[in-house]
Design brief:
five-stranded antiparallel β-sheet; 2 domains; N-terminal domain of MutM-like DNA repair proteins; five-stranded mixed β-sheet; alpha+beta; elongated; about 270 residues; DNA-binding; Helicase, Ruva Protein, domain 3
DNA sequence: ATTGTGGCCTGCCCGC
DNA sequence: TGCGGGCAGGCCACAA
């Protein structure tokens, strides 16, 4: 499922779409248009525009739009979210060979948003479950520091100011952007912290360890190519044992999300 | 303001 | 073999 590493791969792929004139934008499903601006208006606005730059902020992909002087798209941004099952294709090519938990059945039935370029190529958001979406001018300021370059001080601030479970805090995109359920479990497992620990109860060494493992985990997963390639992942099922010490993992809901952790070494 | 809960959405998998 | 229910979780609306 798309978390930070997947969206980072999408960003790389999206570079190929930059500078190409959009002949037509279409929604395969009207529900995929999110935010204030309606799908039809978005479609009108995008016609004739180009994607000038692309960046990733957490799990959000943002394009700066270019348009003819006075064109409706001038100065606007296009935001893409991928939910749990969304993938990006440019000119029919995917960034990742296979998205875990998403079907890889070859079909265009789930093409929820399509940009057709004047050179004949396309940019497609394919999302079976419709949990992603397209939004004009997404509120980037509402997102916390990106998990990939959050500083120790920023993380400490995010943690100290709340009594919710540390896992919930890590997954709160307004506090730290880019961490989803799988990466949260992986990072906490590596940092030896129980997911339900109160965020504000972390000691300075806890915070330091968490910051270190957050960065190290993301580096590993970026290199491996997906959020599902963590060390804990193979054990994340009933009866699964901690890859570090062999203890049977515990399972419960933390912050509304299915969570797996080792009762021996995560405290 | 902060925190918790449920719904959206559909594919997949299990048990009957 | 088909079917129903449970589950997956990013994000958002809403309630307390």
């Amino acid at each position: 499922m798309p978390e930070l590493p997947e969206i980072e791969a999408y960003r790389g792929l999206a570079q190929r779409a930059l500078g190409r004139r959009i002949d037509a934008a279409t929604f395969g499903d009207p529900r995929f248009a999110r935010g204030e601006v309606s799908g039809p208006r978005l479609v009108r606005l995008l016609r004739g525009a180009t994607l000038r730059t692309v960046r990733r902020h957490g799990k959000l992909l943002v394009f700066d739009l270019d348009a003819p002087p006075g064109g409706p798209a001038a100065g606007h941004r296009l935001g893409l979210r991928f939910g749990m099952t969304g993938s990006l294709l440019v000119d029919g090519e995917a960034a990742l060979a296979r998205l875990v938990f998403a079907s890889d059945r070859p079909t265009t039935a789930w093409d929820r948003f399509v940009l057709r370029f004047s050179d004949g190529g396309t940019l497609v958001v394919r999302d079976p479950r419709l949990l992603g979406g397209v939004e004009l001018d997404p509120d980037e300021a509402a997102l916390g520091p990106d998990a990939l370059d959050i500083t120790a001080a920023q993380l400490r601030h995010a943690l100290e100011t709340s009594a919710v479970a540390v896992k919930t805090r890590l997954m709160d995109q307004r506090k730290v952007a880019g961490i989803g359920n799988l990466i949260a479990d992986e990072v906490l497992w590596r940092a030896s912290l129980a997911p339900q620990r109160r965020s504000s109860s972390l000691t300075t060494p806890d915070q330091r360890r968490l910051h270190h493992h957050l960065r190290a985990t993301l580096d590993d997963l970026l290199q491996r190519g997906g959020a599902h390639l963590g060390d804990l992942m193979p054990a994340r099922h009933p009866g699964g044992r901690c890859p570090r010490d062999g203890t049977e993992l515990r399972h419960s809901t933390v912050g509304g999300r299915s969570s797996w952790w080792c009762p021996r070494h995560q405290r």
